[in-house]
Amino acid sequence: MQSKETPLQMAVVPQSFLNKIEEKIDTLENILRDKSDQEINSQWIESVKIPKILGISQKTWQTYRDKRLIPFSQIGSKIFVKRADLEMFMQSHYIESK
Asked: pTM here?
């Protein structure tokens, strides 16, 4: 049995049309990237994971919360931190190289 292949079809379009398509694709990529960043930054992280992320002890994390150094939400005994707030905290303690 022989398989029948569909013949290759081609179309000629003006360069300006291709340029517009490329611009629209770039715009869509930027929108998706921004949306993805927003979703990531609005994610909540459980408190128990924060000391490991920051490389600090549980006691130091308690001190940070007591001093309100990083915003957090508390529901009962559960504590959560927004990823964006953690990122801002890290950025505010950033030390540039000489």
From this structure: 0.56
The pLDDT, as a whole number, for residue 98 is: 86
Residue with tokens 């611009």: 23
| Total domains, the chain | 1
87 domain residue, yes or no: yes
- CATH number of the domain where residue 57 is located: 1.10.10
SS3 letters for 30-56?
HHHHHHHHHHHHCCEEEHHHHHHHHCC
Compute the distance between CA of residue 72 and CA of residue 83 in angstroms, rounded to an integer.
Answer: 10
Beta strands in the chain (DSSP E): 44-46, 73-75, 78-82
